Amino acid sequence: MGFFDALFGRTKVASGKTDQLFQLSTATLDIESQLSSVFAGRAALVLRSVDNAAYDAVEKELHDVLQVGGRDLPVAATSHTDNMGFHWMVYQASEIEDVINALHLTAEMIQESGYGDSLLASMIAFDHQNQARSRDGRWYLIYSYRRAAFYPFVPKTGKNRDVAFEFRLAQTLKTSLKVEADQERWYALWNPPL
After folding, report:
1. pTM above 0.85, yes or no
2. Residue 1 in 3-state DSSP?
3. In this structure, what DSSP letter does residue 86 have?
4. Alpha-carbon distance 107 to 129, whole Å?
5. Of 119, 123, 120, whose CA–CA distance to 154 is shortest?
6. Which of 53, 75, 87, 149 could form a disulfide with 47 if both were Cys (CB 3.0 to 4.6 A apart)?
7. To the nearest whole number, what is the mean pLDDT of the chain?
8. Contact (Cβ atoms closer than 8 angstroms) between residue 122 and residue 143
9. How far apart are the C-alpha atoms of 65 and 166, rounded to whole Å?
């Protein structure tokens, strides 16, 4: 932020930090062995809505890159805009490493195109073997680009959360991931298109 920005009260939103996503590769062993959970084959990148033709071109280029890289990066990608106006790039793959690479590649391309401040979060779906634990046994690990930290989200029916399980997840994962220390920043992302 420059002098005039400070003087006139303007703030610049920091671009997201993308490299910490790779920590998830090593945390996958803890997720499987200590949390009895497996990657559900789906993840998403959540973006603040950008409404201009240049951004539309960036999104088309992202889809083209993922289509061309299909043999090296076997990920199916779709786009979705929710009723709040947030843009979701949804990825489907059998291996979590492929999804991590797709999320990182997408975030890097968005930053290089000048839209890094639109990066909000990545959301990775996991299935817990104890189906009674959450709705359909599904829980999510959310990565906040601005905070460069992960946090768990375990939705239950009626827009409730399984807070006890979220704390257990955070305690287990903090040995291998940077977990957001401020639970007030563990924002719920209800009804994700995953």
Report:
1. no
2. coil
3. -
4. 31
5. 123
6. 87
7. 82
8. yes
9. 35
pLDDT for residue 181 = 94
pLDDT single digits (tens) 47-68: 987 766 777 777 777 777 766 5
Greater model confidence, 85 or 132: 85
Check: CB of residue 66 under 8 Å from CB of residue 115. no
157 dihedral zone (left: phi>0; alpha: psi -120 to 50; beta): beta
Q: How far apart are CA 99 and CA 74, in angstroms?
A: 9
- What is the pLDDT, as a whole number, of residue 168? 92
Residue 38 belongs to what H/E stretch? strand 37-47
pLDDT confidence tier of residue 3, bands split at 50, 70 and 90: very low
CATH 3.30.70.600 fits 19-185, yes or no: yes
| Closest to 89 (Cα-Cα) out of 53, 42, 126, 136 | 42
* Structural domain boundaries in the chain: 19-185
d(CA 26, CA 49): 32
Q: 3-state class of 151 per DSSP?
A: strand
